[in-house]
């Protein structure tokens, strides 16, 4: 009788141990479902599978918004973008660690140039990207992978490319296949002309629509993405059409000068002025806005 009791007791203990192991296994599986491993340019990073409190410290706020992922903090440039719906989202910077801690992020995203990366990693998983290392559509796809929304990102990319190429065909038919286009911006008392990958609509105009840029722009701005100009040489860089990304916080008096007014594109009424705050970036929200802007201005 005593022997049977011992056997039953051992069986009961084994059954209890098995149940405990099953329970632990379930918890482990649940935990792995809550995170994914993202292969960043700096190595693997464990991030939330469904982040709910994201902070973007530079450039990528529009990508996150376009993928319907909640933001709690963004950089000041993004906060000032009228295209973004950021009501209730705080403006933060990479050197305001106390504010970032207060916002309790579960994921932090920024450019590789942001400060305090090691300290930020102690607050939440932090992923950075080097600007220009990926093209603008590859960048959105990477944000999609990071947010566990790669399929949604790819669907938008495919749709956007189709719309941009189609509109480019219509514009070339309207203005002629050889008509050149320039993009400039006034900022901090300087004038800049842009290549084909520095936002301001350049990716759409030059990459997707395949509109040609003036030779002078190719020589000076294509490699670095942009070049600083003086007003005196500006006419050499302006093509048959000119996009002015106008910054209201900087002087735009150059547009009233005789030099500017005598540029053929200006005389011909081929200057389209955009709000720089809406043109700074190249995320899906901004790109859709730019596409509409070009359609409204290039096509009568």
Automatic annotation (TrEMBL):
One of its GO terms (biological process) is iron coordination entity transport. It comes from the Bacteria. Transmembrane segments: none annotated. GO terms for cellular component: outer membrane-bounded periplasmic space; plasma membrane. Residues 53-300 form the Fe/B12 periplasmic-binding domain. The keyword Signal applies. This is Iron complex transport system substrate-binding protein. It comes from Gracilibacillus halotolerans.
């Amino acid at each position: 009788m005593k022997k049977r009791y011992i056997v039953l007791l051992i069986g009961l203990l084994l059954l209890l141990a098995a149940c405990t192991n099953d329970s632990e296994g379930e918890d482990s599986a649940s935990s792995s479902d809550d995170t994914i491993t993202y292969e960043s340019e700096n190595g693997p990073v464990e991030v939330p599978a469904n982040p709910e409190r994201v902070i973007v410290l530079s450039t990528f706020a529009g990508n996150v918004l376009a993928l319907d992922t909640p933001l709690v903090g963004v950089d000041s440039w993004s906060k000032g973008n009228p295209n973004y719906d950021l009501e209730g989202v705080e403006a933060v910077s990479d050197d305001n660690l106390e504010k970032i801690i207060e916002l309790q992020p579960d994921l932090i995203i920024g450019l590789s140039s942001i400060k305090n990366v090691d300290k930020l990693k102690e607050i939440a998983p932090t992923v950075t990207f080097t600007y220009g290392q990926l093209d603008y559509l590859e960048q959105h796809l990477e944000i999609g992978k990071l947010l566990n929304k790669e399929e949604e990102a790819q669907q938008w990319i495919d749709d956007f490319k189709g719309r941009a190429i189609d509109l480019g065909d219509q514009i070339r038919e309207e203005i002629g296949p050889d008509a050149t286009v320039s993009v400039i911006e006034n900022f901090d008392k300087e004038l800049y002309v842009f290549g084909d990958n520095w936002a301001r609509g350049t990716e759409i105009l030059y990459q997707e629509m395949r509109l040609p840029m003036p030779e002078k722009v190719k020589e000076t701005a294509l490699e670095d993405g942009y070049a600083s100009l003086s007003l005196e040489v500006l006419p050499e860089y302006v093509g048959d059409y000119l996009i002015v990304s106008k910054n209201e916080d900087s002087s735009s008096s150059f547009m009233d000068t005789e030099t500017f007014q005598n540029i053929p594109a200006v005389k011909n009424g081929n200057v389209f002025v955009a709000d720089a705050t809406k043109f700074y970036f190249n995320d899906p929200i901004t790109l859709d806005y730019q596409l509409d802007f070009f359609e409204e201005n290039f096509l009568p």
